[in-house]
TrEMBL record:
CDD domains: BIR (cd00022)
Keywords: Metal-binding, Zinc
UniProt feature coiled coil, ranges: none
Keyword Metal-binding assigned: yes
Organism (species): Priapulus caudatus (Priapulid worm)
Pfam family, one: BIR
Annotated protein name in UniProt: Baculoviral IAP repeat-containing protein 6-like
Taxonomic lineage from the root: Eukaryota, Metazoa, Ecdysozoa, Scalidophora, Priapulida
SMART domains in UniProt: BIR
Length: 94
């Protein structure tokens, strides 16, 4: 049985670091560790316990716009409807 310490060292298995690196879980079969980037569609498998999502993304897809910090139409985690400025919508007369 895997210990809690072992499971905590597997950053690739944690949703937050994976999402922050642009990955989403995309298994072909139950138990797969297949993850894909939402921007460049790089597909990474066979993650090791010491792998860091950002490092792996940069290494396997250095030209990915998300990795390079370019505009990707992704909404940063810090922006929500509550933090967005209000917009005024004008009514048109009928």
């Amino acid at each position: 049985m895997e210990s809690l310490a072992d499971s905590l060292t597997r950053r690739w298995a944690q949703p937050a670091p994976m999402a922050q690196a642009g990955f989403y879980y995309a298994p072909n079969n139950p138990g797969d560790d297949r993850a894909m980037c939402f921007t460049c569609n790089v597909c990474l498998v066979c993650w090791e316990a010491t792998d860091e999502p950002w490092s792996e993304h940069e290494r396997h897809s250095p030209t990915c716009p998300f990795v390079k910090g370019e505009y990707t139409q992704n909404v940063p985690l810090s922006v929500t409807h509550a933090t967005s400025p209000a917009q005024v919508h004008s009514e048109t007369s009928k």
